[in-house]
Amino acid sequence: MTAATDLEFAGLTALVTGGGAGIGAATIEALRTRGAATAALDLDPSGAPAGAVQIQVDVTDSAAVQAAVDRAAAELGGIDIVINNAGIGAQGQVEANDDAEWARVLDVNVVSVARVTTAALPHLRRSQAAAVVNTASIASMLGLPERVLYSASKGAVQAMTLAMAADWVAEGIRVNAVVPGTANTPWIGRLLEKAEDPAAERAALNARQPHGRLVEPEEVAEAHCYLASPRNRSTTGVLLPIDGGMTSLRTRS
Ligand code: NAD
C-alpha cells in the first residue's frame, strides 16, 4: 500500500514519450504510483499502464507533436514534467549508415527532445515544479563497437541536457538525464531474438554487466522519478548513470 507521504507527485502532471513500452511505461507506472497524472506519447501507446492518457504520435512530426502536447496539457490540466524517452537504435561502424539513416535516427533520438520540450515549454513556464528528464545511454560514454550513430545521438542528448539546464536554471526549470546501461526491455528482447541462441546470448549479456544482470526498466524509472521530483529542486544538469557500475567500475585491478 502506498503511504500518503509517498505521493510526492500529487497534483503534478507528466508526459512521457515512448511511454507505451519498456523504460517509458515503467516510468509512467512509477510516476502514477506517486500521484502524478500522466500521458503516454508513443507510436503505439496501447501498452502504457492503465490510467495514463494514451496519445498516438510520431515524435518526428512537429505538427503532430504540438497537437499531442496540447492535448496532453488539456486532458491533464497542464504539464509540469516532460520525460523525453522515445528512442531507437542503430548499429554498425561509421560507414554502415547512410545520410537518410543518420537523419532518421537523429530526428527520433535528438531533434525530438528539442521538439517535444519546445512544445511543452509554455506549460513548464507556468509550473512551480517544472522538470525535464531525458533518457540518454551509456553508449555515448564508452567506446562501444558498432554503435557510431546511436552513440552520437545519445552524446547529443547529454550535451543538450546540460545546455538546457544552464539556460533555464534561473527560471526554475530543471533539466537532467538518466543514463541507462543495457536494460531488460522489449528493445533488448527484439535484439536477442535475432541471435542464433537467444538464451545463450542473454546469459552472455548478463555476464558482461558488472553486477551480472541487465538493468530493470523499473530501476531506470526510479531515477526518472528522482530527477523529476519536486523534492529535489537543487538537482539540475545531472547525468545519472543507472548501469550497475558499467561506466564507473573495474571489477579486476
Ligand atoms: P523500447 O523499444 O522497449 O520502447 C521504446 C518506445 O518508444 C516504444 O513504445 C516505441 O513505440 C516508442 N517510439 C519509438 N520511436 C518513436 C517515435 N518516432 N515516436 C513516438 N514513439 C516512439 O525501448 P526502451 O529500451 O524502453 O528504450 C527507451 C529509451 O531508453 C530509448 O531512448 C533508448 O535509447 C534508451 N536506452 C535504452 C537502453 C536499453 O538497453 N534498453 C539502454 C540505454 C538507453
Automatic annotation (TrEMBL):
Residues 12-194 form the Ketoreductase domain. The keyword NAD applies. The keyword Oxidoreductase applies. InterPro entries: KR_dom, NAD(P)-bd_dom_sf, Sc_DH/Rdtase_CS, SDR_fam. Keywords: NAD, Oxidoreductase. It holds the Pfam family adh_short_C2. SMART domains: PKS_KR (SM00822). It comes from the Bacteria. Belongs to the short-chain dehydrogenases/reductases (SDR) family. This is NAD(P)-dependent dehydrogenase (Short-subunit alcohol dehydrogenase family). It comes from Brachybacterium fresconis. The lineage of its organism: Bacteria, Bacillati, Actinomycetota, Actinomycetes, Micrococcales.
